[in-house]
Amino acid sequence: MKGVVELYTDGACRGNPGKGGWGALIRYGSIEKKIFGGEGRTTNNRMELVAVIKGLEALTHSCKVRITTDSKYVLTGASEWMVNWKKRNWLTSSKKPVLNMELWQRLDELLQEHEIEWEWVKGHSGHPENEIADQLANQGIDELA
Fold first, then answer.
1. Checking DSSP bridges between strand 64-69 and strand 115-120, what pairing results, if any?
2. In terms of Cα–Cα distance, which of 40, 52, 39, 43 is closest to 10?
3. Active site residue: 6, 10, 37, 38, which one?
């Protein structure tokens, strides 16, 4: 049986909206890959979503993935809210378009390609991989031109 890909993600924003960054640490056994990026004007929630999307996009094969995030927005959205949004054609219960819809739709596509397990960790609590993902997200902001 093949192992599990560990995906640790985080988003950051300086101002909300403001300059934002995302980071992801991808680990499979002893192999690690760190990726990050940034956007000039965005929100923290968008960066949290982008971190998961970019992490999943970096995978080259369908696999088991454990996604560890400190974002309850991403975790709850993907594991609870999305099913009803899809039933309502990407509208909220109050009939308004889902915020960040294009990102949620892309995440939905990617989640279909893998066997996903979600794990939530408290942010800035000393979880080593979450701290690395946070550093990568901040590096994404720092490297914006």
1. parallel
2. 52
3. 10
Q: Is 20 a catalytic residue?
A: no
What SS3 state is found at 108? helix
The residue with tokens 């991808």 is: 26
Rounded to an integer, what is the distance from CA 41 to the centroid of its chain?
Answer: 18
Catalytic residue among 23, 48, 77, 140: 48
Residue 145 has pLDDT above 70, yes or no: no
Establish whether 142 is a catalytic residue: no
Whether 70 is a known active-site residue: answer yes
Over residues 118-133, the mean pLDDT reads 96
CB atoms within 10 A of CB 99: 13
124 is an active site residue: yes
Alpha carbon distance 121, 128 (integer Å): 11
Predicted confidence (pLDDT) per residue in 50-105, tens digit:
999 999 999 999 999 999 999 999 999 999 999 999 999 999 999 999 999 999 99
**127 included as an active-site residue:** no
Q: Average pLDDT, stretch 31-39?
A: 97
**Catalytic: 48?**
yes
Token pair 């994404």 in the structure block, residue: 140
